[in-house]
Amino acid sequence: MEPNLLRYIWNHTRKQQIWILTIVLLSMIPYFAAFDLPKQIINGPIQGEGFETPDATALFMAFDFRLPLLGWTISFEGIELDRLSMLMALSGVFLLLVVINGLFKFYINTYKGRLGERLLRRIRYELVDRVLRFPPSALKQTHGAEVSTMVKDEVEPFGGFTGDAFVQPALLGGQAAAALFFIFLQNFWLGMIAAVMVAIQVGIIPKMRRRLIDLGRQRQITARHLAGKVGEIVDGIETIHAFDTSNYERADIAHRLGQIYKIRFDLYQWKFLVKFVNNFLSQLTPFLFYSIGGYFALRGSLDVGQLVAVINAYKDLPGPLKELIDWDQARQDVQVKYEQLLEQFDPGQLIDATLHEPDAIMPAHPDGPLSAHNVTIIDGSGVKIVENATLRIDGGETVAIIDNAGSGAEGIAKAFGRLVWPVSGRITLGDADILELPESVSGRRISYVSPDSYFFHGTLKDNLLYGLKHAPTSTVSYNGREAVTRRWEINEAKLAGNTDLDLHADWIDRRSTSVLRGFDDDLKQSIMRALDAVQLTEDVMELALHSFLDPEENPLLAERVVAMRHALRRTLEEEGLAHIVAHFDPSAYNSEATVGENLFFAATRSAGNGDADITESPEVFDVLDSTQLSDMLYGMGLTIADNLVEIFAGLPPDHPFYQQLERITAEDIIFYQQFLQRLQARTEKGVSEEEKRAIIRLSLHYIEPRYRLGVLTPDVMETIVSARDRFYENLPAAIRGRVERYDPHRYMAAATLRENVLFGKLSYRVADAPAKIRPVAARIMDQQGLYESFIALGMSFDVGSGGRRLTLAQRHKLALARALVRRSDFYILNRPLPGLDRRAQEEIVASTLRFLHEQNTNASVVWVLSNTSLSRLFHRVIVFDRGQIAEDGTFEALDKESGIFKSLVA
Amino acid sequence: MLLNDEVQLLRQVPYFSRIDPCKLKLLAFTSARVCYHPGETIFRCGDASDSAYVIIQGTVELSVTSPSGENVVGTATSNSIIGEMCLLGDAPRLAHARAVTDVEALRIGKDCFLKVMADNPRMGIEVSRALAETLRDQAARVEKRPVGLLEPAH
Q: Measured by CB atoms within 10 angstroms of the end CB, which terminus of chain A is less buried, N or C?
C-alpha cells in the first residue's frame, strides 16, 4: 500500500478532488456577491442613494465587464426600475443568492462526505483483503480484536480528512495569502511584521504539535491493546473463572485505562498549551500594529488612515491561518495513524491476489497425487517439526499418519492444508506447487479439518454448507427498484475498489457435494449422510426438539406436529403404554403436573435470561385472591409445610437431599418451621401477606405422585380445573400475552417442539419413562414423514459466536461433517476428534472412510490419528519419529516388523 | 398410597424396622414410586447398580444366566428389598429382576441409601446384621448342598 496517506488519497480521488475544488471556487462568486448586496440595498433603495427625486430610477443589473487579455467586452444595459421596485428586485436577488449559496454548500458537503466514505470503504476493504491474504506465519501474531478495532475505528478519521485533504489547504492558503497581500498593499513594513509573525506561527506551532502527535500515537497503540485485551478476556472467560484470576484481569484493565488516562491528560495539557501560544501569537501582531504603528503614526511618519486599513485587513488573516495550521495538524495526525496501521497490515509477504480470484467452476487441473518433496517445517519457535520428509498420497488411498515422538504428523497435515508453509521443499498436487495453485483448485480438491476449525456465527446449516461457498453459482435477476439498487451497489463497490460479487446470489456449489448422483436432493443427502457418518444426527434431533417453532412462519409443519401429537397418543394407547404420559386435557386435572401448572394450564416462555418465573409474579397472587383460590391453596400449603418441616428439619443445609426439592432450600425450611411454631403459639395476631404467599407457593409447586402427601383431594382438583378459565381471564394483560393455553388441537409457539409433540407430562411412577417413549415417538415421526422436517429444524439452530453454543465434541464432529459434505480428492483430517472416547472414535473413523469411499472411490483420506490402534482401518500407515518418516507401509506389513509401529500399537 | 403408608411399609422391612419413623419418612420422600407391568425388567444382570427397590406390591422374579440357560434364583414379594447388596459395593447387578405381576416399588437411590445409613448408625448395624444373617444362611446351605451354590439346580 502507498506509504503516504495524502498520496494515497490523491491516487484514488484525483478527479473528484479537482472537481470539488472547481466547484468550491465557483461557489465563491455568489458567496462574495452576497457580501456586497446588503450594502447596496441599504445605501440604494433604503437610504435613497441615487433616488434623490421621487420618480428617479436606477438601472438594475447593469454591468460592463472587460475580459483582460482578449479584450472582449460583456455588458448588460440593465432594466430601469424605480425605488420600490429596486428594493424588491435587490431583495429578490439576495434571496436567490441565499438559496444558491445554500445549494452550493449542500452539494459540496455531500460530495466531500461521499468522497470520504468511499475512501474509507476502500481502505477498510483493502485492509481486510490483506488479512485474507496474510501468510499463515503472520496470522499467529495477529490479534483478532486489535485488527477489528483497527479496521473499524482507527481508519475512521481518514474518511473525514479525505474531503478536506486538498480543498481546505487550497482555499485557506488562498484566503491567507490574499489577506497578507492586502496588508502589504496598505503598508509594506507593517506587512512585513505580519509576514514575520505568520512565519513564526507557522514555524513554531507545528513543532510544538509534534509532541501531540507522538502522544496521539501512544494513545492509539494503548487503545488498540486495550481492545485486544478486552477481546482476550471475553475469549478466555472460562479460563479466568476456572483459575480465579478475574481480579488479575481487573488490575490489568485498570492499569491500561490508567495509562490511557495519563496519555490523554498529557495530550490535553499540551493541546491547550499550544492553543494558548497560538492565540498569543495571533494577538501579538495587532499589539505590534498598535504599539509600533501607533508610535510611527504619532511621530507622523505613518498615515493614520493607512494604519486603520492595515488593522482592518489583519482581521481576515488569523482565521484562515489558524484553520490552515489545524489542517496541517490533522494531516500529520492521520498520516501517523496511517503509518501505524500499515505496519500492522504489512507482513512482508502476501498471498498473491490472483490465487484468490473467484471461480464458480473449479479450473481444469490435471489429476495427480498429493506429494511432499523434501519438506522441512519449523514451528513458531524455530524448531524443526518435520525434517526432509518425502511422501506421496495416491488417489483412492487411505493413509493413517501417527507420531511416535514430536509432532511431525500434525506438521505435515497442516502443510497439506496450507496452514503452514514449508521452509524448504515443496508440496505438490499433480505437478504444481499447492502454494502456487489458485485456491479455487487447492481449496476444493483438498479438504482440511482440525480440532481448531472455526465456526461462524449463524445456523448449523450455514456452517455445514460453509465449505461449498466458493463463488456465486447463479446470478440473481433483479426487477424494478431492486435492479436500480443493485446497479447502484455494483457501481459504488467498483468506485471504492471493492468486489461486486452478489452476497444474495446462490453461493452453494451444488456440483461439488459429496453425494453426487445428479439428483435434486444430492445436497440434502450429503448433509444427512455426513451427519450420520459423524454421529451427529441425534444431537441435531435433540436441538430440534428443544427449539421453538413459529406456527405463523411454518403453518404446515405446525399442523403436522399436532397430527403427530394425536398419532403418538393413539399409538401409546394401542400399545398399552398410555400410562407413561399424562396428557393435558382442558377438562381434567393433570396429576403429573404441579398445581400451578394445572391452574395456568398454559405454556409459558420466559422473555429472556434471568427473567423471573411469571407463575410467581405478584400479579398471580392477586389473581389467586380475586378468584377465591388463595384460602384453599393456603390450607394445602400448611399441610405441605408441616410435612416438609417434619421430614427435613435438622438436616444440615448442604445435605444432598435438598436437591430432591427443586425450589426449596434449607433457609426456606427454617422459615416454614418458625412460621408454623408461631402459628401454633398464636403469639401473633395474623399472618402477613408475605408469609401467606410463601405458603401458597408451596401448594403451587405441589405434585401428588412426587410428594405423596395426600393433600390433593378430588374436590381440590375439581376446584382447580373449574377455576382455569376464571383464572386466565383475571390475569393482567401483560402476563396473559406471554402464556399460551393448552389446546390439544393447536400448536403452541411458547412451548418447545418436544412439549408440543408430547403434550403432557411423563409419569413419575413409570420407571424409565423417557426410554420407553423414545422408540415409539421415533417410529411415529418416521411414519408421519416428519424426520427430515425435524432435522431441518435442528439445522436452523444458532451455533453462537465461534460455535460456543455447541459442546466441544459436537463442534469437532461438525467440523468433520462440514468437510464430508464437500466433494474433494484429498481429505486431510488432522486429529479431528480428539476428545471422543475410543469406541465412538473407532465408529466414526470407520463410517467416515466408508462414506467417502462410497461416494468417490478415488478420494484419498489422510488421517492423523491420536489413537494408533485405529490404523488397522487404513490401507497404509506412516509413522513419524522426531520429524522424520520412520516407517511407511501397510498395517499388516508394519505389524509384522518389530519397529516403532509395533511398539506403538502394542 | 401415601407417604405415611410407605413409611409403615418400610418399617416392616427388616433393615428399616428400628429406624426412627421420621428418618424413614425422609427416605421414602427421597425415593421414587415406580410401577412395572408383568414381564417388565426392573434391572438386568451386569447393569450398574444405582438403586435398591423395596417392593410394595406384586412379585418379582430374580434370575441369573448361566451357560446352561436362565435359572430362577428367587422371588421377592411385598415388604422385601432387592438390589441392596450391590449398593454397598460398587459391583454390577448379579441377577436379572423381572416383574411377574403388576409391581409397585419404591426406588431408593444409592446416594440416599448411603446417606441415610451414614446419618443413622443404627441402620448401619441393622444392615450389617442382615448381611451377616444372609451369609450365615448361605453358609448353612453350602454345608447342606455344596454343589448347589456352584451349579444351581435346573
A: C
